Amino acid sequence: MLCVFVLVQFQFEVAESARQRNAKEWTDSEMDDWADHFIRSAENTFSYQWSLEAFALDLRAPTIVDVELVVVDVTEESLSSTEHVFTAIVTRGSKERPQTFDKQRKPQVQLRETDVSLKPSHGGEGLAQRLTDHEIAHCLGLSHPRCQDEDLYCYGDPKTAEGQSVTGLGATVTQKDYVVFAEIMGEITPTKSWRVRSETFRSQEPRPFRYMKIPGPKPDRLPGPARSHGLPLHRHTRHHRKH
Ligand SMILES: [Zn+2]
Q1: Residue 222 located in a structural domain
Q2: Owning domain of residue 91
Q3: Which side of the chain, N or C, has fewer Cβ within a 10 Å radius?
Q4: What's the pLDDT tens digit per position in 8-43?
Q5: What pLDDT digit, counting tens, does each position of 180-210 carry?
Q6: Cα–ligand 1 centroid distance for 205 (angstroms)
Q7: Each residue's pLDDT tens digit, 213-238
Q8: What pLDDT score does 97 carry?
Q9: How many angstroms separate the Cα of 44 from the Cα of each of 35, 37, 96?
Q10: Residue 170 Cα, ligand 1 centroid: separation in angstroms?
Q11: Is residue 90 within 8 Å of residue 99, measured between CB atoms?
């Protein structure tokens, strides 16, 4: 199994216009709930959607690898100074559409409080999307199906699979969206050629995948999967952004 870690540092703020309308500040439990919702949704959306396979030269059975996405909520200053941490700025009362971009080589994701909910897509003809999942796709290096811009054309035809994908206007993770994980396997094992298996994981006999979990590089502080086991959340101080 391939565990892909996405490190995110959350920052919560209130839009100035909303503050003037007496919007409340974020409470600790609201921030924890929001981050938890974001993490669970991203992990569930991107994990175990497709399998990767590599054939050996002697044509033995292919090696099959499943993918688990683990979103790590980074709260330590030491970690947040590396350029591999995405800063997710969550703004209450903002009307700006979410965005993922590099700010002085520090990747940032700008989100509204409501973006963690499943909502009808703009121009999506009945499609719904959780925009936090769409932005995580950008964090993984994925572009819109047709082009990188924000034109509606770039998101794909909502009547087709690409338009209905999480990188388009919908919520499904397509085979093409998984190519990035095949590329990661290619970097780890350069002698093998990896591709995304054409049958989905879900079309196969269900496998109890939890027991196969491999601890990540920092097993002492792995918040991702532990949350799925109903363990209480670790309380910590969150970063309020001040202007
Ligand atoms: Zn986008």
Answers
A1: no
A2: 2-216+236-240
A3: C
A4: 999 999 999 999 999 999 999 999 999 999 999 999
A5: 999 999 999 888 889 998 764 444 444 444 3
A6: 33
A7: 333 333 333 333 333 334 444 445 56
A8: 87
A9: 14, 11, 26
A10: 11
A11: no
Q: How far is the CA of 167 from the centre of ligand 1 (A)?
A: 7
Task: Find the CATH number of the domain harbouring 108.
Answer: 3.40.390
Number of separate domains in the chain: 1
- The answer to whether the CB of 93 falls within 8 A of the CB of 25 is no
DSSP category for residue 93: T
Q: How far is the CA of 28 from the centre of ligand 1 (A)?
A: 29
CA 210 to ligand 1 centroid distance, Å: 31
- Tell how far the Cα of 26 is from the centroid of ligand 1, in angstroms: 26
3-state helix, strand, coil in the chain (%, to 5): 30, 25, 40
What are φ and ψ of residue 165, in 5° steps?
-80, 165
**Cα 87 to averaged position of ligand 1 atoms, centre (Å):** 16
Average pLDDT over residues 150-178: 91
225 within some domain: no
Q: Give the distance (Å) from ligand 1 centre to CA of residue 60.
A: 40
Give the Å distance between the CA of 56 and the centre of ligand 1: 37
In-domain check, residue 152: yes
Residue 99 lies in a domain: yes
